[in-house]
Specification:
289 residues; Arc Repressor Mutant, subunit A; D-Maltodextrin-Binding Protein, domain 2; 5-stranded mixed β-sheet; 9 helices; 42% helix; elongated
């Protein structure tokens, strides 16, 4: 039987993910594919090689003897491909990659990954812009940014990867601003995602409100709430020990989660794709907490 020995790196990547996680479901999550797609890719690779690569026992999956051999080669192939692309595209004049991120993602969790990328690829000039998602998104649409990480309403856009961003109402631990009339709100300028949700909620409740603190700085908004300036709507992962979460028992309805989505220009370079993989890994860790 004659086999086609040109191995697709996409199939190899899915095979490695299943072998490393022991699960098609977890492999689908790590590769940002559907479980059925991962299963189809494994079957295609097994057909191409003419052997079973995985034992499927209940919920857990392990490589067969042949699978272990192929796994070693698969890792080497992908590593060599990455090195070849980086080396080839790294020659010539310095290439620029521009990345836009929201302020709350330009933190200790993401910066080490970006710094490591710059150190690993000194021939690449990485430029990072932090700001409001609305501004970053406009620049991406104009083609001024190669990669952007933005917060958008669920289902509003597709991208390379996405993560859920649960929101919650917060007040100062030492204040009860809901009792005030009008209710003081701490928020971002016009165009900020949270601002419209805040105004709409209090209008729907028939409660008068006023802006007590407006800032483009996320840290400024968080500090203003801690100090008792007013109520705000922020990602749950940003709640501090000086904040108090407000729920339906306090009279405020739950707000639908947003999505954090990584977008890339269609013309993204090979190095840009490597950077996107680093950003995805970092965001997996950030959004897990």
């Amino acid at each position: 039987m004659k086999f086609n020995m040109t191995l697709d790196p996409v199939l190899l990547r899915s095979f490695i993910a299943v072998a490393d996680t022991g699960s098609f479901t977890r492999a689908a999550d790590s590769t940002h594919l559907t479980q059925s797609t991962v299963s189809q890719q494994i079957r295609k690779l097994e057909t191409q090689l003419g052997c079973e690569l995985l034992y499927r026992k209940g919920r857990y999956t392990t490589p067969t003897l042949e699978g272990e051999r192929v796994l070693r080669y698969a890792r080497r192939i992908l590593q060599l491909m990455s090195e070849a692309v980086a080396e080839t595209s790294g020659r010539g004049e310095q290439q620029k990659i521009s990345l836009g991120v929201p302020e709350d993602f330009a933190t200790h969790a993401l910066m080490p990954s970006l710094s490591a990328f710059s150190n690993e690829y000194p021939g690449i000039r990485l430029e990072v812009k932090s700001g409001m998602c609305s501004d970053i998104w406009r620049e991406f649409q104009r083609g001024d940014l190669d990669l952007v990480l933005v917060k958008q309403r669920q289902g509003s856009a597709s991208g390379l990867a996405r993560w859920s961003e649960p929101l919650c109402w917060i007040d100062s631990l030492h204040s009860n601003n809901l009792e005030k009339q009008p209710v003081p709100l701490v928020t971002f300028p016009v165009g900020g995602l949270y601002r419209s949700e805040m105004a709409h909620t209090f209008d729907s409740l028939g409660r008068s409100w006023r802006l007590s603190y407006v800032s483009t700085s996320l840290s400024g908004v968080c500090c203003a709430v801690e100090a008792g300036f007013g109520i705000s709507l922020l990602p749950r992962r940003l709640v501090t020990a000086e904040h108090r979460i407000l729920t339906e028992q306090d009279g405020l309805p739950p707000i639908a989660d947003l999505e954090v989505i990584l977008h890339a220009q269609e013309s993204i370079s090979a190095h840009g794709k490597i950077l996107a993989e680093r950003v995805i890994s970092a965001c997996d860790e950030i959004c897990r907490h």
